[in-house]
Write a structure and sequence with these properties.
By secondary structure, the protein is α/β, with parallel strands linked by helices. It has helices spanning 2-15, 82-90, 111-116, 133-143, 153-159, 175-187, 205-220, 232-238, 256-262, 307-316, 331-339; strands spanning 36-47, 56-67, 71-75, 97-102, 105-106, 118-121, 193-197, 224-228, 241-246, 249-255, 266-272, 289-292, 295-300, 321-328. The chain has 2 domains: 2-260, Rossmann fold (3-Layer(aba) Sandwich), CATH 3.40.50; 265-328, Alpha-Beta Plaits. It binds adenosine-5'-triphosphate (ATP) and magnesium ion.
């Protein structure tokens, strides 16, 4: 329970955080701020064999840059290496080789400053149940050497919708509230980089929306956010830059819009006023699929824009269009394509972005 947490935290505090390292929020965008909030190069992690489990290379010499000010999503299937990367940045897992820096500070050579520059919400919730949220934040602030007059526990709790629970025992908080409390805890020393490992896992839809807007606000106020998520709509809605990691390798890293444009495929679903048994010859050139007697599904490359031609052919075939709908590729399509390794012709991977 508490004792181990506190002991670990205290040993960190004496070893790594001996004096206040608060950075005023304004510095997050200052002239001295680095171009990349996080930068890793050739980062490798091999978990050593134990018992019958052989060595496991969780990260294979990855290169990754998280631009300052970005809201950056790290996506990947279970076991891809996301938490390993985050835990290395947080100082919870020791890397095997390579370099990593946070806010320009090397995690080996400038450990104290690199730790002070990052706030991490780990995937596993480990909150001491016997403190109240307010006490927990005060304790955390103490560990990071935040002077009393600069502490903002109440403000942080309010920003995460936890004012009502400030004095409640943490064990009485729901799962979603605990997760928000973890976010609050990671913010007490005002780090310029906030890392959230699956921040909305197990959080209900309404609270997820709230957390999203809180994360957006933090980002707009200058904090660089790195998050992992399995909810692709979360990354699509929230993030401006997306990296995909698979089997310990970065297989994509680029601005969201650019990633979404990669899958050059679109669908047009047309409902007509007749029951068809076969595709009319006028439409054969477009190879539609007859999904129901009155429904035709056309798949095409977005860049080819054949819609006018399709409508023209439909009218030549004597068909009246009752309804039509188009669908574009979304992040889920791209994610599945990339992580399944199905590099079909429609998917082009710009090599300069791949770590
Ligand atoms: N302490 C450990 N000892 C040995 N192997 C580990 C350890 N932690 C993680 N691994 C292995 O390293 C690989 C990457 O795990 P990691 O937790 O980084 O994945 P992840 O991308 O965060 O997955 P998830 O989406 O399930 O959280 C996995 O194969 C996992 O089994
Ligand atoms: Mg994980």
């Amino acid at each position: 329970m508490a004792c181990t947490d506190i002991a670990t935290a205290l040993s960190h505090s004496t070893m790594e955080i001996q004096e206040p390292q608060l950075m005023p929020a304004s510095d997050h965008r200052g002239v001295d701020a680095p171009r990349d909030a996080v930068s890793v190069s050739g980062l490798t992690k091999v978990y050593k064999a134990s018992g019958r489990t052989p060595d496991k290379t969780a990260l294979h010499a990855i290169d990754l840059k998280v631009p300052r000010g970005s809201l950056f999503a790290l996506l990947g299937p279970n076991g891809a290496g996301k938490s390993t990367l985050i835990n290395i940045l947080a100082g919870l897992v020791r890397k095997s080789s390579g370099t990593a820096s946070i806010w320009g500070y090397d995690i080996d050579k400038q450990t104290r400053m690199s730790r002070a520059s990052i706030g991490v919400v780990p995937q596993e919730l480990n909150i001491d149940p016997f403190f109240t949220p307010k006490e927990l934040l005060e304790l955390q602030a103490g560990l990071y050497g935040v002077p009393k007059k600069e502490r903002r526990s109440e403000q942080i709790l309010a920003s995460l919708g936890l004012t009502d629970k400030a004095e409640a025992y943490t064990r009485t908080l729901s799962g979603g509230m605990r997760r928000r409390l973890m976010v609050a805890k990671a913010m007490v020393h005002r780090p310029p980089v906030l890392v959230l490992d699956e921040p909305t896992a197990g959080v209900d839809i309404e609270l997820r929306q709230q957390l999203w807007s809180q994360v957006k606000e933090l980002n707009e106020a200058g904090t660089t956010i790195l998050l992992t998520t399995h909810y692709l709509e979360e990354a699509e809605e929230l993030c401006d830059t997306i990296a995909i990691i698979n089997h310990g390798r970065v297989i994509a890293c680029e601005p969201k819009e650019q990633l979404l444009r990669r899958l050059d495929s679109k669908e047009l679903l047309v409902e007509v006023d007749a029951a068809l048994r076969v595709t009319p010859p006028e439409l054969e050139a477009f190879s539609p699929e007859l999904t129901a007697p009155n429904r035709l599904l056309f798949r095409y490359r977005a860049s080819e824009s054949p819609v006018a031609g399709i409508l023209d052919a439909l009218s030549r075939a004597g068909l009246t269009v009752v309804d039509l709908r188009t669908e574009e590729a979304d992040l889920e399509d791209i994610f599945l394509q990339l992580t399944r390794g199905a590099h079909d012709a429609a998917l082009t991977v710009p090599q300069e972005h791949v770590g």
